[in-house]
């Protein structure tokens, strides 16, 4: 009994692009998603699975031949090349090698050089660097020196990968096609299929004498020093893009981008919420009752604020435009000073007598806890709504 073909994966949907998307649009979509779901950035197990799907989608859609298979309704990464469940596929009989091999016969495998060798020069990957900054630096900006360990162009061979005075050689196994062909019998008859050449790894050329510096890769790893300009108002977790400062690609390909991820160190006094700053100041009970004046040291100045007489615990003072400058636009956030009113824990006899006398003058009797109708009784009445 024939089983129904498995549904091909929607590689366009995985990258969030249309079926008419250009190569550049596919690449931009891949880079954006890869940065979001890369395991080094997002350790969530679901994000790791998503990252695998993103890589698979880019592998397919960046290859013209594999993309053509997708457009015809197949899945080049499925078992058997997209024909799962067909005759001779998984669970079937016969030496059928799958939809991929049939496509090879029609699109270059039978006479073939439609696919051709893959290029040795390929774009480089993006890189991410963590940069820790103080609150003052993120608030007002800074030019920060950074050290980057990335792949750079090999200066010995200028990316060619060959030793001085030597050149690439045409692969004898595939005659420079980058693939080898084989003939297999299928239910359609004989099908000529093509596979990447294992001798040259699909490049069509070999390097008889590799560059002694880069071993034929066209790039070497090194440590570089750069200076990154941090704009005023950046927040924790933001990334700054340095174009083409990432990894140089194999064969001296165009470098990827470097993303500097900002991590703001905790401040001893202030906590930050967006562009607003918050701090806590303790004032004595007497100062809160009588009023006082406080000198607050902000990030870049000193401000004097008045605490009004009768200020209650958990009151907040607001200093406008004394927070962090806005990243986009002009102006600054605010500074909020949260007041903690401190009540003395120990009183000497004279101080206690003065407070008791003060309470009497206000009609605030300090009753004994065991006395009927005392403090707890009045509290109970207040909760129960009695006058």
TrEMBL record:
Extent of Gly residues compositional bias: 79-94
CXXCXGXG motif repeat copies, ranges: 154-161, 171-178, 197-204, 211-218
PROSITE patterns in the cross-refs: DNAJ_2, ZF_CR
Superkingdom of origin: Bacteria
Major location category of this protein: cytoplasm
Protein's cellular compartments: Cytoplasm
Name of the protein: Chaperone protein DnaJ
Source organism per UniProt: Micromonospora taraxaci
């Amino acid at each position: 009994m024939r089983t129904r073909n498995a549904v091909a994966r929607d590689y366009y949907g995985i990258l969030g692009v249309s079926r008419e998307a250009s190569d550049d649009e596919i690449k931009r979509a891949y880079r954006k998603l890869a940065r979001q779901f890369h395991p080094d950035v997002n350790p969530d197990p679901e994000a790791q699975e998503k990252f695998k799907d993103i890589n698979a989608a880019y592998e397919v859609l960046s290859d013209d031949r594999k993309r053509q298979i997708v457009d015809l309704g197949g899945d080049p990464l499925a078992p058997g090349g997209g024909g799962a469940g067909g005759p001779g596929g998984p669970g079937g009989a016969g030496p059928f090698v799958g939809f991929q091999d049939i496509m090879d016969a029609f699109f270059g495998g039978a006479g073939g050089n439609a696919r051709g060798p893959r290029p040795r020069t390929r774009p480089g990957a993006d890189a991410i660097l963590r940069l820790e900054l103080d609150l003052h630096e993120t608030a007002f900006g800074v030019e920060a020196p950074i050290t980057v360990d990335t792949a750079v162009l090999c200066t010995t061979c200028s990316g060619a990968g060959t030793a001085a005075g030597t050149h690439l050689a045409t692969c004898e196994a595939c005659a420079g096609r980058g693939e080898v062909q084989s003939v297999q019998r299928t239910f359609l008859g004989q099908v000529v299929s093509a596979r990447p050449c294992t001798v040259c790894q699909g490049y069509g050329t070999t390097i008889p004498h590799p560059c002694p510096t880069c071993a034929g890769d066209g790039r070497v790893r090194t440590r570089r020093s750069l200076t990154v300009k941090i704009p005023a108002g950046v927040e924790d977790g933001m990334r700054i893009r340095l174009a083409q400062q990432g990894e140089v690609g194999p064969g001296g390909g165009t470098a990827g981008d470097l993303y500097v991820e900002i991590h703001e160190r905790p401040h001893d006094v202030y906590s930050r919420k967006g562009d607003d700053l918050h701090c806590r100041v303790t004032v004595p009970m007497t100062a809160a009752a009588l009023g006082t004046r406080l000198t607050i040291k902000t990030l870049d100045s000193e401000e004097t604020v008045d605490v009004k007489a009768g200020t209650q615990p958990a009151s907040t003072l607001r200093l406008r435009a004394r927070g962090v400058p806005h990243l986009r636009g002009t102006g600054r956030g605010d500074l909020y000073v949260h007041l903690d009113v401190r009540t003395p824990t120990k009183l000497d006899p004279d101080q206690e007598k003065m407070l008791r006398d003060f309470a009497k003058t206000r009609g605030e009797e300090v009753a004994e806890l065991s006395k009927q109708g005392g403090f707890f009784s009045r509290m109970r009445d207040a909760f129960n709504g009695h006058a």
